[in-house]
Specification:
The protein is of the alpha+beta class. The protein is about 30% helix and about 15% strand. It is built from 20 helices and 18 strands. It has an eight-stranded mixed β-barrel with strand order 5-6-7-15-13-12-8-16. A three-stranded antiparallel sheet has the order 9-11-10, with no helix packed on it. Residues about 1-25, about 25-40, about 45-55, about 75-80 and about 315-330 have low confidence and may be disordered.
Length: about 650
């Protein structure tokens, strides 16, 4: 019975003890469901409700009625707390299914052994992405050819080059090379900016940047309209091909400048070029196009000189109105005081002490006196002409600045070459480097006609040098490359048709024995005539000639007149190249392959014509360079013996 005070009195009511015990059992077996969750019974409750009869067998004695009398004690602050004494709860035996599992026994931790396992393999996951949208030019091969026609005319492309370009696009189903499709239209690929920069920087290589840039389409930004897809992609392809072609010497055709300029150019094939650069990133595009420039050391040296010269040309020059400015350098001519022309302008016919200095500067005798006379005026006018000034005889500020500068030439012979003229000459010589084969050969013979010099070059290093005599301006040594096949000791000389016609036939017409008296053999076959000089000391070819068969019928050979090798200017032949100390040259050619020494070869003299075949052909390059960098790194200039510099400059519009 539980007593509860109601309205100051105590009332008792009785609850069965069995219900209280069941509730206690539920609390012990499993946690009660969360407060407020009345829709889902806890697992223990479900077990008790379902299997209570099977799991619980409790024999309890009857519980007596208990009446608790609680006397309420009034306190000022709060109700008194009652102590309630309850009988001890009976011990309840739980089945094994309802017992909580025993807590695991803590054991000492066993150290985990360290295993050396191999690195897991790299796993590559291939994801099939949808292909990008495909862009096709709205054209056929005929439309491509029609679109290329303006470029063919402008840049003088050959028919074979046009066929290769049109065929390239047809082979790739007219897919563009430089355009890409996006969701909103066709755009020029970003790598075209690299091509544009290459064209802009082409002047560093001696090429025409304006020519290359003008080949590119005007519009390369934004969406390319459908009607301009063909011309845009073709224009970029033409610009790329034009760069490679110009780099290999395709700007001019040498044989059209002179019949003596017959190198075989190795121009790129446009289809092969475009195939190699399609889909290439910008850096590889740059490297590939740069590879078409000559890799020869002589070309690279001239390129460096051109860039250095252009830097000098871009520097300000202190002349004319800047003369006398504070802080400006004021050089002084030898023996003259600083600013010796300072003061009012010299007056013609009037005496002036400065006139004596002027006479000294112009190389005139001082006996002329202090009067600015007619003789001195003519000298001043000549000085002005030499230096590009107005030849009026007046001492203007520009004339005064030039006179006071000791580096200004007085005569034409003292005048240094104009820097722009020199730059153009360097470009012309760089162009002729493009005419040479891409590979000169690990072992080759190199003749520079204007320098009158022959070299044997092995692995890029000169291993033998000698003087040569080349053709006269009227009978020039041609410019081309070929391969030496053999040499002949004790050669005979068949007079070339050109010499026969110009020299022998006119004299034979008046003197039939002219050739015989000079030791020549005349052979007549019907209406034709040929003249041969047998081997010997007086033979025009000397004791040995070096043969590389060519269309010009020229070769390297000895000469009976060796005194001419002592001259600085050595243009005396009919076109062939005469070699100083030819047997030393022959030994260098043959010592490695055949083991022949100079003495062994000389031992063949006078024993009839002897042909010595080379085990391996040797490249021979007859070149023409008026400007080059020598072994000490100094820029050298030579006379334009045959006028080839002028022809190339004119063709390149320099």
């Amino acid at each position: 019975m539980i007593a509860q005070k109601v309205n100051g009195s105590s009332k008792c009511r009785t609850a069965p003890l069995a219900l209280a015990s069941a509730l206690a059992l539920m609390a012990l077996v499993a946690p009660v469901s969360a407060q407020g969750d009345e829709t889902r019974p806890a697992p223990a409750e479900a077990i008790i409700e379902k299997e209570a009869s099977a799991l619980l067998r409790l024999d309890l004695p009857p519980v007596p009625d208990v009446t608790l009398q609680v006397d309420a004690v009034e306190t000022p602050s709060r109700a008194a707390e009652a102590d309630i004494t309850l009988p001890a709860a009976p011990e309840i035996e739980l089945s094994e299914d309802l017992r909580a599992p025993a807590a695991p026994v803590q054991q000492a931790e066993t150290p985990v052994p360290k295993l050396d396992l191999p690195e897991p393999p790299t796993v590559t996951v291939a994801v099939d992405l949808p292909p990008p949208p495909r862009l096709v030019l709205p054209a056929d091969e005929a439309a491509i050819r029609a679109a290329l026609e303006p470029a063919r005319t402008r840049y003088r492309f050959k028919a074979t080059e046009m066929d290769a370009l049109a065929g390239f696009y047809a082979a790739r189903d007219f897919r563009p090379v430089w355009l890409e499709a996006r969701s909103d239209g066709a755009f020029v690929q970003s790598r075209v900016a690299t091509l544009s920069k290459l064209a802009a920087d082409a002047e560093q290589e001696g090429l025409d940047a304006v020519r290359l840039l003008s080949a590119l389409p005007v519009r390369t930004n934004g969406i390319i309209p459908a009607e301009r897809l063909i011309e845009t992609d073709l224009a970029i392809s033409v610009a790329a091909f034009l760069y490679a072609r110009d780099a290999r010497g395709g700007r001019i055709e040498p044989s059209r400048l002179s019949g003596m300029l017959t190198p075989e150019l190795t121009l790129p094939n446009p289809a092969e070029l475009l195939a190699s650069i399609t889909d290439q990133p910008a850096d590889k595009l740059t490297a590939l196009l740069h590879s078409y420039h000559p890799r020869h050391a002589g070309y690279r040296a001239l390129r460096a000189e051109l860039m250095k010269l252009r830097e000098e040309m871009s520097a300000p020059i202190l002349t004319g109105s800047v003369a006398g400015l504070a802080g400006a350098p004021q050089p002084v001519a030898a023996g003259l005081p600083p600013k010796w022309l300072e003061g009012p302008a010299l007056a013609f016919g009037k005496p002036d002490p400065r006139v004596l200095h002027l006479r000294s500067r112009l190389g005139l005798p001082a006996e002329g006196g202090e009067v600015y006379d007619a003789e001195l005026r003519k000298a001043v006018e000549a000085f002005q002409r030499v230096n590009g000034l107005t030849p009026n005889g007046r001492i203007t500020p520009k004339t005064r600045a030039a006179l006071e500068n000791p580096q200004t030439p007085v005569t034409e012979s003292e005048r240094k070459p104009d820097k722009q003229v020199l730059a153009n000459t360097i470009i012309a010589n760089m162009e002729r480097w493009r005419w040479l084969p891409v590979e000169l050969g690990e072992f080759h013979v190199f003749v520079n006609v204007p320098d009158f010099k022959l070299q044997i070059v092995q692995d890029g290093r000169s291993v033998h040098e000698t003087r040569v005599i080349v053709g006269k301006p009227q009978t020039q040594t041609p410019v081309f490359s070929d391969e030496m096949e053999h040499l002949i000791v004790n050669p005979s000389w068949g007079v070339p048709p050109s010499i026969l016609k110009k020299e022998f036939l006119p004299k034979l017409a008046t003197d039939p024995d002219y050739a015989t008296r000079r030791g020549f053999e005349v052979v007549r076959r019907g209406n034709s005539i040929s003249i041969r000089q047998p081997p010997g000391e007086k033979n025009a070819l000397g004791f040995v000639k070096f043969m590389f068969p060519n269309n010009h019928s020229v070769y390297l050979h000895d000469t009976p007149n060796r005194s001419l090798f002592g001259n600085d200017f050595r243009a005396f032949s009919h076109g062939c190249v005469r070699v100083d100390k030819p047997f030393a040259f022959a030994e260098k050619l043959l010592s490695t392959s055949l083991g022949y020494s100079e003495g062994y070869l000389r031992g063949m003299i006078g024993r009839g014509e002897r042909m010595v075949r080379l085990p391996r052909r040797i490249p021979v390059h007859l070149s023409y360079f008026t400007v080059f960098v020598d072994a000490e790194g100094k820029l050298q200039e030579r006379r334009d013996l045959y006028g080839h510099d002028a022809r190339v400059r004119s063709a390149l519009q320099l």
